Amino acid sequence: MWIPLILLAALFFALNHIVKKKILESADVIDMMIINGCIGFLIMLPLISFVSFNVSLKNISLILLNTLLAYCGSFLLNIAYKNCEISTVSPLLNINPLFIIIISFFVLDEMLNIIQFTGVFFILTGGYIITLKNIKSFFQPFTSMPKKFFLYVLGTLVMWSFCPVLNKVVLKEYDPLSYMFFFVFFIFIIQVVMLAVTNKYASVSALAKKSWPLLILASTFWIISDFLHLAAIAVPTAVVSLIIPVKRLSNLFTVVLGGNLFKESNLIMKTVACAIMLTGLFIIGIFS
Fold first, then answer.
1. Total structural domains in the chain?
2. Full domain range(s) for residue 43
3. Residue-wise pLDDT tens digits, 85-143
4. DSSP assignment string, 208-261
5. What CA–CA distance (Å, rounded) separates 245 from 117?
6. How does DSSP classify residue 199?
7. Cβ(254)–Cβ(14) under 8 Å?
8. What is the pTM of this model?
């Protein structure tokens, strides 16, 4: 049951990724994040009647911690996207599931068998290759990125590694919709504070007027993707160590939806990468 949910989450994650990259071509990172956070809260607000406010102090604290980690990670990643080529930044994100597998082992007592780990390896390898410019630049993401931005991406990977584990702990006792509401609410509070501290009212207003259709799309895709992500984790039999690697199929969706798959220069390499990723998904689907 969790595989269709996380595949849909990956699809909307890819759509969000594509739209945000388009916005960032002519926008400031903080301006975009402030507007997305506010729009996201407006999207969730009509669903407040379905939200359970019977949440323990422990769970609300974990949701807040997860929000801070997710926000700070996104902030660093957006800066990297703003200043570096997407083909340099995106491949590094495939390292993230390896951190999650280690943390899940110690916190959730999850352990993959050799077949499942083989499926994860195929997905991560294919996901890494498909985001490269060409196969000759296999090590380029590790060598060509300025040290400062490489550390930003590494910081994102570390912070994001704890998020799904925290999610799993909370979702054993709390429903995904209510979790999502509080998560978006905390993001909204952070953005309001950020707006007040930076005094960027004029630039935020200008961006909202200029790019409001794309901003609404990005926020909508973000809300849908994160909710489906939480719904997948909430499935009792779902294993975090497998969920996050499968979500890396968003790389495949990004390439296909962005049209890059059909560029003649990279067609063979990206087709092989797609086949590798789908093989990994098949292995996980059959043996999980």
1. 1
2. 2-287
3. 766 777 777 778 888 888 888 888 888 888 888 888 888 887 777 667 666 666 666 66
4. HHHHHHHHHHHHHHHHHHHHHHHHHHHSTT--HHHHHHHHTTHHHHHHHHTTGG
5. 10
6. T
7. yes
8. 0.83
